[in-house]
Design brief:
Layout (H helix, E strand, L loop, with lengths): L1 H19 L3 H14 L4 H13 L3 H14 L4 H14 L2 H17 L3 H14 L4 H14 L2 H17 L3 H14 L4 H11 L42 H17 L8 H18 L3 H13 L5 H13 L3 H11 L6 H14 L3 H17 L7 H17 L3 H14 L5 H15 L7 H7 L2 H15 L3 H14 L4 H13 L3 H17 L3 H14 L4 H13 L3 H17 L3 H14 L6 H18 L3 H14 L4 H13 L3 H17 L5 H12 L4 H13 L3 H17 L3 H13 L5 H12 L1
Amino acid sequence: MASNRARYEEALNNGHSYIWDEKWEAAIKEFEVAARLAPHEPAPYDGLGTAYSKIAQLEQALQNFKLAARYSRGDIIYLRQVADAQERLGHLSEAGKTYMAIGEVELNRRRLNDAMDNWLRAVRLEPDLLKAHQRLASIYERQGVVPNAVNEYLAIARILNTQAEHEKAMQACQLALRLDPRNADVLTAIEMIKSGKPITHVSGGTGPLIGSVGMVTQEGDVGGLSSWSKKRAEAASPVQDAHRMAMEQLAGDLFGDGEPDARMLKRSALVSQALDYQTRGMINEAISAYEQVIAAGVNNAAAHFNLGLLYQDKLRFEEAIHEFEVAVKDHEYRLASHFSLGECYRARGHIDKAIEHFINVLKIVDLGTVQHSQADRLIELYGNLAEGLTAQGERDQATSFANALVEFLSHKGWEDKVKAARSRLDAISDAGMMTLGDMLTAGSEQVLESLYLSQEYARRQMYDTAIEEAYRAIQLSYDYLPAHVQLGDVLGKQGRRETAASKFITIAETYQVRGDVNGAILAYGRAVEFTPLDLAIRSRLIELLKRHGQIDRALEHFLAMGEAYYQLAQVDKARDTYQTAVKLAPRAEESAKWQVKLLRLTADIDMQRFDWRRALTAYKELRKLDPGDERTAITLVDLYYKVGQPVNAVTELDDYLKQLVRSGRGAKVVGILEDMVRQRPSDPNLVERLSRLYVQQKRITEAIEVLDKLGEAQLEANDTKNAIETIEKIVALGPPNTASYQQLLSQLRQ
């Protein structure tokens, strides 16, 4: 036994020496000896794990680290090595669980910070690790770090909701709501659970939520919607102003003119009571009083607005929305009601509806700063802004805009700020009209100044300086895409077309990530303008247009792509492009027009390459789509002849000639037949039709002439039988030299 122990110690020491000398294979052999001699000791397996990890054999390393952890009864050192190996192997879920276990060990050792570090790492690797989120939520709540605790409770709700534990998910939301009663993400999560939808708007761990309405500040407070938990006096200035006005109007109505009757006295008493409760901050009592006021017939905007504010303070958002929708119809309360509606919809998680009302707020404010002649243009620009913010399908941009608007209007003297901003915008406006929305979405007035300077320098062809200003705007607000668009424009004007195209491709990809399809399409379009022969870019643009139903625009780019292939002498690819577009054309608004155009291009290529059969297929489709087109009809007849189908050719010709007659264009028949016979004077079917028409028109000489040429061709071809029939037709017409034709007939009959 002693000798085995001595040999074990020797092997273990040798293994560690080889590890130190980076002789991994030798170390493995020694540690294997040690493991055989002491199979329940953790040290040999730890050595094996280390050596195997150094030669990138991570699976073997992991297995040995697990054995070391097992035989050490969960020593934290070995558990960390297990977790690290799992993470490096990509076994993220298993690594998360191991970090969770490490956290539990650290907690038992009363090392709370270390425990939390491991739990945070666990949920980063395995976002659905319920127990880790529960631990974090509990500790954050005890520490008073409300935003992080709320995030963890939301993560718990998401996991439970995914597991169909809807009641427990709702309980997690209620725990979060208890900490932050006005948190929009919590309210939205509750709505999703109620409607049976997955909770998709919350993050998987601690930190500010992705797309969150609340914004975690450095002090750990929650901004945005949870500002409703502050005093009403800290509300946005337009709401403060409207609130004061409502209180004054209602108080003034108490002392109206005339002799009051019993009903008026009752109403006045109710209004007085409501105002008193509201002034004293007795919200529930004030709500009840205002409800009685309105039920008693006091149906003015002031009462509805005040009741809406009270509902809003009690998180009764649906009822608040109803009251503000009444008040918004009154001109005096329109601005504040739109603002409050935006706040309520935002609290419900309906960011699109919130943005509509916030845009209305900004539009009302901005309309007061411009001349009457500019109003229509301003309204149009705000319509574009609203569409852009709501079309992106991403909450971040819309939320940032809403936050900026709230901040802009949350200080006293906001009217003066608006006037100053309008003056600034007019001074830097390139087109003579910009909106306050441009300033809010840019994030800084300096951004707009740099863009304006960049435009000015570009107009003076000072491109290097223009580029510097565009870069300055980007540095100030990296996510403000108009700054990147300006840079791309200047690069293009400078002649750096490929660089400009590359810039617009990046812009397009960013728009796609943000869900702004129209922005992506415009950016890809600009890239194509700079590099029209870059077919890969155009293909991406086409796919984007197709996916979003802009078929006609996609077909325009198919045409351009086909033309580009043609210019590059890649005729097969040009034809394939047109054929692909033909299949797409039925989905276009002007489907027939597109199909005709594309089929013609396809057929033209086939005709140029003398591929008559493929051209015939295209022209048969063209004939159906555009039956009145003469070129199509005549070419189709000609193609039938070229592929050796004269019967079909004549049938098609007859159909077209009848169509001409029925449509009142019979005068064209003669000319068409004459052209046909001129090309094929030996075709009896064509000659027979033309000669018969000549006879009908009493143009006997021309009839005899075409029949004579046919007869000569038949005689040259030794087609005696048909030649005799042709000459008999000539004789029947009574030509001047009838005797000669009769003599020829006699000779042929012999």
